[in-house]
Amino acid sequence: MRVQDIMTGNPACCRSDSSLSESAKLMAEHDCGALPVVDENNAPVGIVTDRDICCRGVAEGRGGDAKVSDVMTRDVLTVSPEDDVEACCDKMEERQVRRAVVIDGEGKCCGMVAQADIARKANSDITAELVRDVSM
């Protein structure tokens, strides 16, 4: 099974200069907990999660007008749509992350794969190992 078989294609994205409020609204509109942060060429430069907005933003006194760049994670894990799901899981386990941004051959964001996607679509052994190892 390949990443392209389980990923969410064309995910909602934001820019590093987007406000926390705009990004939170985008997450609510698209029923997601994370957004790839992309540059003007749609290349990923980070990822922002609802937890980032809450814990690095609101809890630290930043308002809704603060920028995504203030709270995002810059070291984003990327994978290819052609990558094997098991190899993707290995990378997620190694980096202790629950999400990876999928990039095409030009380095542009074309999808997102989350632990939940793997749980819904991959075999149970891969899912159990990923959940166990990322949760350590």
* CA gyration radius, whole angstroms: 15 Å
Question: Uncertain spans, ≥5 residues at pLDDT below 50?
Answer: none
Number of helices: 6
Strand content: 15-25%
Shape: globular
Give the proportion of residues in helices. 25-40%
The helix/strand order is HEHEEHEHEEHH
Report strand order across the widest sheet: 1-6-5-4
What class, by secondary structure content?
A: alpha+beta
What is the rounded distance between the termini?
Answer: 26 Å
Summary, kept brief:
The chain is an alpha+beta fold and 136 residues long.
Describe the structure.
This protein has about 140 residues and is an alpha+beta fold. Helices cover about 40% and strands about 20% of the residues. The protein has 6 helices and 6 strands. The chain has helices at about 5, 20-30, 50-55, 85-95, 115-120, 125-135, and strands at about 10, 35-40, 45-50, 80, 100-105, 110-115. The protein has a 4-stranded mixed β-sheet with strand order 1-6-5-4. Strands 2-3 form a two-stranded antiparallel ribbon. Strand 5 (about 100-105) and strand 6 (about 110-115) form a beta hairpin. Helix 4 packs parallel to helix 6 (about 125-135). The model has no long low-confidence stretch (mean pLDDT about 90).
